[in-house]
From TrEMBL:
Short name of one Pfam family: PPR_2
Keywords: Repeat
Gene Ontology annotations of biological process type: RNA splicing
Protein name per its UniProtKB record: Pentatricopeptide repeat-containing protein
Organism: Anisodus tanguticus
InterPro entries: BIR6-like, PPR_rpt, TPR-like_helical_dom_sf
Length: 311
């Protein structure tokens, strides 16, 4: 369809008689209308962002509705710039209209993308109650596959400061029949592990086990982070990851290398990095770069030279 429209663009500029012939065809008349409409709307991501920002600031929700529909039809996803027109000054004024506008978008995909993007944006701004309201709208519409994902940005934002509030949001999820999934618990677990709260981390693990959610790379990454932050890293934890067939994330390697060097276990750090050498080029570059840099920072120049020379 896109190729056909492009061919008609050339015909439109070069031969008016051809265009007239297309208009006379009742089957093709709709296609011509779409073609002329597209000409008035440049197909570029920045054009969508600029138009929706201008319309949002002016309270022109008819245009907001049109742009949110149009960008999906043209294959452009929403971005972190889509709702940049929202600010502290206008949020309470426009949120009702914005939610009503999104609820009227033409199809499920357009609505889901817009709801998710808005939740993410409000969570970044730390407007938790407003973000929760958007997530509740998603659940109310019955987007079953997206229920947990709708709340993930909120939980993630809360785990940086407000741990108790994250549990309240999970209670809201449950009130809609949405049981927290492993990703939801991983956000909570990571937050507790980051501050070294062993007791709360253990409680989260107990919930994960009770609900038989298993464990993935993020779960183990959080545990390694917590062990390193509390100075109690155990090689058995890493071995269990490998035994369970769970690959270490890049950040998991960083969690391990840092504390090992902090406690002056230079040989163990080098041995750890070399044990993963040759598997992935990017991982090697990351690990060796971090290790060499931190050795130099600690004035361990000989170890850094040996690291580079030996590999």
């Amino acid at each position: 369809m896109v190729i056909t429209l492009t061919q008609r663009t050339k015909a439109r500029y070069g031969d008016k008689e051809i265009v007239m012939d297309l208009v006379r065809s009742p089957v093709r008349e709709i296609k011509v209308e779409l073609f002329l409409y597209d000409l008035a709307f440049p197909v570029a991501l920045t054009s969508y962002n600029e138009r929706i920002k201008k319309a949002g600031r002016e309270g022109d929700f008819a245009t907001v509705h049109h742009v949110l529909n149009k960008r999906v039809l043209d294959g452009f996803f929403n971005t972190n710039n889509t709702f940049k027109f929202i600010s502290t000054n206008n949020l309470s004024i426009i949120l009702n209209d914005l939610l009503e506008t999104i609820s009227r978008l033409d199809n499920y995909f357009a609505r889901k993308c817009s709801y998710d993007c808005l939740t993410d944006h409000l969570s970044d701004m730390h407007y938790i109650s407003e973000a929760t309201r958007v997530a509740e709208a998603v659940v109310s519409e019955g987007h079953a596959a997206a229920n947990n994902a709708a709340f993930h940005p909120i939980i993630n934002a809360l785990m940086k400061e407000e741990f108790d509030e994250s549990w309240r949001v999970m209670d809201v999820m449950k009130s809609y029949g949405v049981n927290p999934d492993l990703n939801t618990y991983n956000y909570v677990l990571t937050g507790y592990c980051f501050i070294g709260n062993v007791t709360s981390s253990a409680d989260v693990l107990a919930r994960i086990e009770k609900e038989e959610l298993g464990a993935d790379t993020r779960t183990y990454d959080a545990l390694v982070l917590g062990a390193c932050r509390s100075g109690k890293l155990d090689a058995a934890l890493v071995r269990r990851m490998l035994d369970d067939g769970v690959s270490l994330l890049y950040c998991t390697h960083v969690h391990i290398i840092g504390p090992v060097l902090k406690y002056n276990y230079y040989e163990q750090a080098v041995e750890f990095v070399r044990s993963y050498a040759g598997r992935y080029v990017k991982l090697d570059a990351e690990n060796y770069g971090i290790l060499a840099t931190r050795l130099i920072t600690r004035s361990r120049f000989e170890e850094a030279k040996e690291l580079v020379k030996g590999d």
